Amino acid sequence: MAKFCANCGSEIEDSWNTCPNCGTNIKAPQMGGEPRLTPTPSQTPGYGSRPNSNGFGIGAVVDWPLTDQIDLHAEPMLLQKGGKIETSSGVAIYKVNYLEIPLMLRYTIQHSASLLPYAMAGPSIGLLSSAKLDIKDGGEQDEKDNTKIFDFGLGIGGGVKIPRGNMTFFAETRYVLGLANIK
To answer: CATH classification of 3-178, choosing from 3.40.50.300, 2.40.160.20, 3.40.50.2300, 3.30.200.20?
Structure first.
């Protein structure tokens, strides 16, 4: 099966350490940045149902090649979670920020130089950064002492890498099943 440079998409040999087209070190980790929009589920532990909301994230991407088709895909990021909570006494906004570190094993199906589809799975570990409850017309309440410091989940997903020149773009979707009750 053919192998392609993740940087420029040129076909390469298994024995090569660098791509002859762009000079990328094929065996070295690759790094980049990532903005993220994250939909949150419709339940906030300890608070019941609430409307879906979106959180923002920013982080980095690091890929360590293990074989020509399998790599360790790490995405340390600061990620917002939480949402609007509607209770009988009013509306509040639950704001939680975590430093998330998903560690995914990623299998790339290398059949074309221009599009490289992949599947991935692995754990996601989170470390609490902040937790607040904004109560409408009632101020702000610190919830860090009432929120668990660690979050843990298992993720599965897929996507496509798109090599363009000396950069590789990617689009992916992922579902992370939360295994920890953070409240």
So the answer is: 2.40.160.20
